[in-house]
From TrEMBL:
Topology with respect to the bilayer: Lipid-anchor; GPI-anchor
Presence of the UniProt keyword Ligase in the record: no
Cellular component, GO, one term: Golgi apparatus
Protein name as annotated: Monocyte differentiation antigen CD14
InterPro entries from the UniProt entry: Leu-rich_rpt, LRR_dom_sf, Monocyte_diff_Ag_CD14
Length: 373
């Protein structure tokens, strides 16, 4: 049997490259819907992934090893096994914990261009080497959601532009967490015409200066939700300024789980996007409502902050739905932040809920604003 289809990494090699022997590293649920593989054995039996061919959702962990052994067929024409890929039920795929040559990543995407894959997650990967020249026309999958968590790229700031050229247009949700570089090469980056949700959560080193570099101007014309949970943001006004430079007009802005402070006196005012109607400032350690917020909002979330009194009307925007749950002034037994600065001043239930900071920001947005994805 030919070895060229081995470029499909951990999904197709069991069928086309090796015989079935052991099924232990992979498990499929009773409904043949989800398949999970963990190849941690020093000599992994890749053939165990055979059973994943029937699954809709596949998650494969490579055990941190290099996948160079699959390079032999990376330059093959995927048309010769296109019918097999088209027949897959696969819709959601996660590839994690491996060292992957860039040539193999692009070959992988090219092969998946014949699939019906909609959601791709790359996690804990080290992408090594230089990728081949991008195609004149995208040949990769038509994804709706792309999630990248703790992925390093040897190509530095050009990595997103190079990855983008392999994907067919239509990406709606882009989630980049624990990134090694978010200073994108804006000149090389093409427009994301359909992207409605950009989630840069769980990048605590990003900050407002980094956000200005990441929000390449005019590249996100359809953006409706900008999610910046635990992203090193300092003030709402600073985030407003970064959005103004980029020209983005989101409806929903999530700044929860940042250590926010009030805008410094004398700081220049910022004109908020006219489309913005939902602002999440929960879990941000706020002792007072920041000045300079948008004049009008449909939703303002101030849950689980350190407000020791109910905000006055003149301190708030004109807002239809204001959430203040979990602030000390609503819980007589909660420690008062100003009276006892050595305590956190956080209501106990909020302290427990703060574990949600590791939760995907995109998931949080989709739970609240389901129509964005």
């Amino acid at each position: 049997m030919m070895r060229t289809p081995c470029l499909l990494l951990l999904l197709l090699p069991p069928v086309l490259c090796v015989s079935e022997t052991s099924l232990e590293p992979c498990e499929v649920d009773d409904d043949d819907f989800r398949c999970f593989c963990n190849f941690t054995d020093p000599q992994p039996d890749w053939s165990s992934a055979f059973q994943c061919m029937i699954a809709v959702e596949v998650e494969i962990h490579g055990g941190g090893r290099s996948l160079e052994q699959f390079l032999k067929g990376a330059d093959a024409d995927p048309k010769q096994y296109a019918d097999m890929v088209k027949a897959l039920r696969l819709r959601r795929l996660t590839v994690a914990s491996a060292q992957v040559p860039a040539v193999l990543v692009t070959a992988f995407l090219r092969a998946l261009g014949y699939s019906r894959l909609k959601e791709l997650t790359l996690q804990d990967l080290e992408v090594t080497g230089t990728p081949p020249p991008p195609p004149l026309e995208a040949t990769g999958p038509a994804l709706s959601t792309l999630t990248l968590r703790n992925v390093s790229w040897a190509t530095g700031s050009a990595w997103l532009a190079e990855l983008q050229r392999w994907l067919k247009p239509g990406l709606k949700v882009l989630n980049i967490a624990q990134a090694h570089s978010l200073a994108f090469s804006c000149a090389q980056l093409r427009t994301f015409p359909a992207l409605t949700t950009l989630d840069l959560s769980d990048n605590p080193g990003l900050g407002e200066h980094g956000l200005t570099s990441a929000l390449c101007p005019q590249k996100f014309p359809a953006l409706q939700a900008l999610v910046l949970r635990n992203a090193g943001m300092d003030t709402p006004n600073g985030v407003c300024a970064a959005m103004a430079v980029a020209g983005v007009q989101p409806r929903h802005l999530d700044l929860s789980h940042n250590s926010l402070r009030a805008t410094a006196p004398g700081a220049p005012a910022c004109v908020w996007p006219s489309a913005l109607d939902s602002l999440n400032l929960s879990f941000s350690g706020l002792g007072q409502v920041p000045k300079g917020l948008p004049a009008r909002l449909s939703v303002l979330d101030l849950r689980c902050n350190k407000l020791n009194r109910e905000p006055r009307l003149e301190e708030l925007p004109k807002v239809s739905n204001l959430t203040l749950d979990g602030n000390p002034f609503l819980d007589p037994e909660a420690p008062k932040y100003q009276e006892n600065p050595t305590t956190s001043g956080v209501v106990p239930s909020c302290a427990r809920s703060s574990l949600a900071v590791g939760m995907s920001g995109t998931l949080a947005v989709l739970q609240r604003v389901g129509g964005f994805a």
